[in-house]
User: Fold Dynein heavy chain linker domain-containing protein from Anopheles farauti.
Amino acid sequence: MNRKLSRFTTKQKLSECEKYQHISNFTNRRVTEALELETILAHNGVDFTDICLPIGEQSDLNSDEHFLPIDIFDDRDFEPFDVETNDCWRQMEAFAILPPNAHWCCVRVINHDPPTNQLDVMEKDSSTLHRVHRLQLYFPFEDPHKFAKRIATAIEARKVAENTIRFRFICKWVYCGERIGPGQALQRSMLNRAGPEVYNIFKTLYEDYHLALDVGKLLDIPYSPITIRQPSMSGWKNGARNILPLHRGPICLSDRLDRVKRRTLLCDRNVFYALRLVNQECEVVRKVPLFVVSTEQPFTLEEFENQNISQTSKTIKYLQNTWVERTTMHLHRWLSRIGEGNFHIAVAKWEIYSMLKIKRLIEQVQYRMQDALKDMLLNATFAYVHFLVNDCPAIFDLCDEYCWDGNLIESPFEPARSPVFYLTLKMNPQAPYYSSDPDTFPAALRTIMDDVLAECHFIHTIEPSLMQSLAFAGNLYLSSLGLLDSVIVKQRNLLLEYYTKALLPLQAYAARYTAYRELFFTNEKEFIEGMKSSDKSSSEIKEDIAFQIRMRENLEHTVPLSIVIGPFWINVQPLREALIRKRFELTFALLTMLTEKLRIKTADVIGCYSAINERMCEKPVSIEQIYDIRAYMESVPELVSKLEDRMRGILYEYEILDSFLHNLPDADFEQKWKALAQPRAVLKQMLSVREFHESEVDRFRKQQFADETSFTASIEDTNAYISKFTTLYDPCKVSEMSVEVRRLWKVLQELIDHGHVMNRRQELFELAPISLNNLYELRHNFSAYRELWTVAADYLKLEETWIGNPLASVDLEAVRRGLQQTHDSLKELLVPFREQPQVLAVVEHFIHLVEAFRPNLDIMELLKCPYLEAIHWSQLAKEIGVKGKLSMDVGYDVFLAHGFRDHPETVRRVVLKAEQQRKEQEERWKEEEQIRQREEQYRQARAERRLKRTEI
Assistant:
């Protein structure tokens, strides 16, 4: 079974795939001439008469003419594209067949009607519009064979339908008597096994089936005037059978009264009372509230949905349970009093029930209940839409590009009735938004209405609950208003149009608050940091504070607490208060910043006053400091005057804070008045300092006499030590001598500097100056001796570095320059020591050392040749007799130790050989490079020739 089902599914998918065609290019024309299309259609058995119905009188069922339009059998699975979503067909040239013309002609496609799948076309040389069905219109980009198959499929389906209609029409009017009923044996067997009720149902089906078989055999005769075949008998339901006319005789008044009683429903007062109670229940239903249609204050969308769900669930529960139960109860109570007869509610046979008046009565009650249900839905839907569409005509006149151009307080969309919905305007970093998304309102309101209409289709009829002796299907419901009912569609469209239009001013109003987004998300600390970094003056900060105050007042006058736009009551108060609070915070932050700025300025002024006091009150350690302080005190009045001017400017800035009624903190207030009191305190301190200095001058004069005596003794001691030291002339102690010389020179310089200080103090005390001539003479005589030992010590250190460091790191130019400078300095010292033979010998000794080192320069220069390689160093070591590895990384002392200074010619010969080998090697490299370049040029030329070669 599963294998057969899967085979059937696969076959069905294949058939669907055969219908499908993919259009990749809608400009590609597969058929360019109408004659070509007609040829393809004719090849598939499609004629003009098959597509268009004959114009004239209605076709007779006894003829072979088609009487059903072909468009109702169109299989849209053949459609190559979606007409509603794809606009490629607009203004396109296509081929259409326009009755009464029997040929396809070229037209232009203008419009499309989705419900009927018909298109408006216009002939090429005419301005008349024609409406044709899709099967009468061929687009050039379609597959013509698929289009022909589509028409052929519709024609075949129409033939089957017309054949079935003709067959059933004939069967309806054929009467065969009792000859086709079940036999007596079958009748007795069915009655014994199942009972008369089941037998009656079986008999009806048996007769209908064999009647259709007999009619089919009758229609298969060769001389049948029309072609009718017996259709499939599945689901066959025979129509009403002809009833033989009754014999009519003379009727008297009593007979007529009896007939009226038999026909009318109100033949018993209990029926009348039952219908009256049914009517009362229906009137109650007509007034039942289905939606929430009144409010004292606006709802949020969520509250509105919840209240409607609560109200509708209560009403639907009443309709599905209470209403049906009460109506059944009333009918049962009154009809049960009648007892058996036409209104017998305990009837157990369908044949009897279908002939009784109670069936007509129940139908009448059902119609009344359906009318009440429809009236209730119409009234409720009208009230629902009337409540939500709160009479604001200006909304319907809006266009999609609407912008809110007016102020934010006055609304041009004030409705005649109260607003329905409550919204709160908020702000996020991207844009202003509402507490409920306005775009959800149309869909949500439509869903509320459509869901209730759908629920009202599931209210059971009273027939199963009243006629409990009969079996009924479980899906018997009262007929209600459909979702596509014209009245419902009109109300729904009105609701959707109103709320779709109402969203335009709502969103435009929110967009106006985008200007406040930057203010809303302004960070107070970052704002103040930006103001501080801009380094604005106090007057500019005052303007900023005034601007913030003006903007805050502007918000209070231009931003409303709330506003009504159509059905929406918008609460702007939280956003308004947040913006005003933000302006207030920025104002307070600016005032605080200005306060801090003034605090720093005032503290700076007080610091300047404190610095003046500290400078004046310094305890002098010398007479020079006293005179410096006195000189500074002479400028103090001017400094105090400048500080007073600065403080007056700061007081003007303090007045800015006073103008904004800003209270200073206690510490700032105290600091301000302290700064104002400082000038008087500074001038008072000057008098105390002058009195203190008078006593200090006497103390320093006494100290000066003692310092003068000590200075003279120091000069005599130094002179004696230098005279003794200059008798030393040992060249071997050059390092110790240079250190001691430098120390003595420093002592001399300090004595001279101290002498200058003593003379300045002598001048300040108005005393005679101290003579320093002997110090100057002593320094002059000692300078040549100092020069000798320092130059000698420096040269020995340089020579040690030249010899001890690796030869590669020695700078020969620096060596040559150092030798020359040392030699010149020593030559200049020969003249001063001409009369001192011992010292002169020392000078000559060091000159001889310098001259003795000069030959080493030539050897060092040869050894630093860059062309010397390991083989050359090996050759040098071998010729000179060195047992070891030589290189430029070895110190020159190693070369001296092996006697390189005695073999300059050997070194020069090896160096010249190395240079010659290097030149020869460079020439070989140059020749090899030229050969490589010529080979590369040859390979490139060969590659180019190969590219240009033409293959035959």
The longest strand covers residues 104-113. Strands lie at 93-97, 104-113, 118-123, 129-133, 137-138, 421-427, 432-434, 562-565, 568-571.
